[in-house]
Structure formats: C-alpha cells, structure tokens
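We now fix the convention by which a protein and its fold are recorded. The integers have meaning only within a learned vocabulary of local backbone shapes. The record below shows the convention in full.
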Amino acid sequence: MAHSVEEDYLAAIYNMQMEGESVIGARLAALFKVKSPTVTQTIHRLEKQHLVVVDAHKRLDLTPAGRATAEALLRRHRLSERFLVDVMGMQWHEVHDEAARLAHVISPAFEARRLAQLDNPTTCTHGNPSPAHVEARGFLRRQHA
C-alpha cells in the first residue's frame, strides 16, 4: 500500500500525463523540490509495489493499480476542496493545502457520505474534473512510448 509521499508521486505522474507531458524523475524532483536520489528511491518503492513502470528511456508510466491509486487520491482531494468551500465556507483559493492533507486520511465510507452530501460533484472548486468523470469527458490524454 502506498504511503502519502508515494501517493503524491502517483498523483503528480497522473497530472503530468493529463497535461500530455512525458514524466521523468527530473520533473518530479523539480516539482517536489527534492534531490534526484530521493526521487529514485521513491520510484523504486513504487516499482516494487507494481504501481509504476520505467521504460528504457527512464520515462514513468502508471500501472493500472498506480492509476487507480492516483485517481482515488485526486478524487478525495477534489472532493475535500468542494466540501471545504461548499460546507465549511472557506474561500476557494484557501483550500488546496488543507484538502491535500485531508485526501490522505479519508476512508471510503467517509468519501461516500461526503459525495452524497455534496450531490456527487463532478469538479473541484477550481473547475478540475474529478477522476471518476475524467475519462468519460475526454480529459485524460495518455502518452505511450
């Protein structure tokens, strides 16, 4: 099972792929503001868990399990943003960091109740689609080597 740092890497890979970017360790190091060996260690852990694969050109891709983990985290993050704005009354520009923390600890039961309470929103407060709705609406552009 992925830990929060590993989940963040999976979500970053997913988001980069959504933007049509080729994902390599250097981009992750820049994003997370860490040194290359840190990224390499994390990627090795993700490979051992069968969550990512690395090709001969050192490009990263999510396995189906890695993709599911990333989508679950992003769905919880975006749902948390919606909850913080719609129910808690926070401003949309204030909720990202709080939602990032919450997304790692929400149980599936809590997620289901929150979804029902919010009438199954399809986007976060910033307009980003929930991963549950991404493929059906054509937002995901995957790169293949």
